[in-house]
Each structure stands twice: as structure tokens, then as C-alpha cells.
Amino acid sequence: MTEVVHTPRVFSGIQPSGGLTLGNYLGALKRFAEAQNQGGMETIYCMVDQHAITVWQDPDKLRHATRELAAGFIASGVDPEKSILFNQSQVPGHAQLGWIFNCVARMGWMQRMTQWKDKAGKNQQNASLGLFAYPALMAADILLYHATHVPVGEDQKQHVELTRDIAIKFNHDYGVDFFPVPEPVIEGAGTRVMSLRDGTKKMSKSDPSDMSRINLTDDADTISKKIRKAKTDPEPLPDTAEGLADRPEARNLVNIYAALIDKTPDQAMPELAGMQFGQFKPMLADLAVDRLAPISTEMARLMQDPAEIDRILGRGANRANEIAAPILARTYDIVGMVSSR
Ligand code: TYM
Asked: What is the pTM of this model?
């Protein structure tokens, strides 16, 4: 069998489950815009509304969150002319390929997913079947476009690895070299932004404490207050990033600082070494406000014209479908489904 060389292509997605955090911005949105601006690879970004409904979503809130997420993408620098920006449910191939991958993935693979275990908790019997099958749909999202690069935060690494397993098993079972085996791209200081109240927990929109996170819709005063009140320790900042190893809260704030100025923590340390938090926190707060306030202003402006957002998503879905349709048709063919063509 000859090796098929796949054209490099970027795909990633975010759930419109209400509220974008600084974690989504540094771990995903900012990097999506960078991948787009680097050029050389087609960039496809998706609002995964079908993933969102694996847990209950109020319909009106889901619609609002999808438009707000689209506004968040654009305000963060994703240009719907340069990238393909759309919502998942408008391209039927995601669900169609997702079904085929449900038949490729194994129960045991799904049971090992840490996010499934965390989200279903002790009451697995009452979780939706969709929540269990979710990583197979994520594999379909990626492979429907033959994407080769998947920029994500740390917490999605296991799901991209499962996507690789699904691609390999499909190719093996059907004796083809059809799906690429995509790479997770997890680079930079912002791929694991932690809670501002507990440096061992991920910053998340589902944390009950609003003080634990910065929302992309927070105003300047709120951003400053949350950073000033962030949990820290009494020591000054060390000389090197290594010195932060056992100081999760301090490390998190330094990582946020470094990610906002596009440096590694090591590169950022010389200017921070020896600083007390009383000095570092206001500096970080000013930087965060400077970078995030224009995004929330632009999101609010875009949200004043939801019909325009819907038009952008509709155009994006048409473009996505043009790439997806032949890949899905070929998949059906490989699997042995009779078509009327
Ligand atoms: P979601 O919606 O939970 O998060 C979207 C993106 O934001 C990143 N992220 C973070 N990065 C750094 N620090 C944090 N605290 C933080 N919180 C979230 C996530 O890693 C992710 O990159 N299953 C995915 C959505 C998805 C997807 C896909 C992603 C569906 N299909 C195909 C890539 C490719 C999810 O629930 O992400």
C-alpha cells in the first residue's frame, strides 16, 4: 500500500456551552488566530453545538451561546474570510461520520477517557449516551476534513489521541490509507490555564466560583479585581521558571503573563525575578485588561447584529460542506454503503 501524503490542514472546535474563559482564549482562540495568520495551512474552526447537547442545554441559551462564541472567535482575530468558521449542526457529515466511528471505537477506549469519568461522575447510568460517545464525534469533526493538525489545550490531548486510534483502526480494518493520523498541537504557556482560586484545578466555565476564572465578557474592573484577589503564596517570584515547580498558583500567574506577551515562562522570568506579588499582580492585571478589553468590546459590538453572525456561519458551513462531502462519500464507499450516484 502506498503512503498517502495528506495536505496539512488545521481543525479545532469549541463548545458553545455558555461563557468563554481566559483558558479558552490562551489555550485555543489566540492560537487559532496565530495558526491562521501563519498561513500555509487551511484553518477550519467549528462551534460544536452537537457536543454541547451531550449535557442539557436550554435551547435559547444554546442559540445565544453559539452566536456569542462566533463573536468570540472573530473578536480574537479569527477572520471568517481567511478561516472557515461554522457551527457543527449545519454540516450533516459530522453526525454521519460520527455514527461510523461509533462502530469503529471500542467501549473500553471510551471508558478510559478521563473527561467522561469526570463529567459522568458517580452517576454514569444517568449520563447521556451522547456524553459517552462524544470522543467518537470529536474524531469525526477532525477526520471529516482530513485535518492533520489539531490545536487544543492540554485537557483535550487524550481525545485527540483517541482520534488517532480511530483513524488507525479504520484504515487497518478496511485495508486503506484513507484517514490521516492527526497531531495534537499543544504549544506555548497558555495550554493549561488554572483556576485563580486553586492552582491545581483547571480554569473552567463550570467552576461554581466566578472568582476562579476570567470571562472574556468581564469588564476591566472585574478582570483587575479577580487578578488582585487571585490566590498566591508569600514568596517573591524566583529567578527561573524551574523555581515555580512546587508553587502552582504562582506558576499559573506567570504562565498567563508569558502567554499574553507571547513568551515562554523561561523567557519571561528575567523581568519578573525577585518581584513581590504586590507588584506583579497589578502589572499582570494591566496587561490582561490591555489584551482582553478590546476583545470583549468587539464581542459586544458583533452581538448587536446576530443576523450578520448567522450569515457568516451559514457561509462557513457551505465552505465546510464542500470539503466534507467528498470525504464522507468516499468513506461510505469504503465501508460498503450503496449510493445512488
Ligand atoms: P472545550 O469547549 O471544553 O474547550 C475549547 C478549547 O479550549 C481549551 N481550554 C483550555 N486551554 C487552556 N486552559 C484551560 N483552562 C482551558 N479550558 C479549555 C480546550 O483544551 C479546547 O482546546 N472536546 C472539545 C471541543 C471539540 C474539539 C473537536 C476540539 C469538539 N470537537 C475537534 C478539537 C477538535 C471541548 O470540549 O473543548
From this structure: 0.97
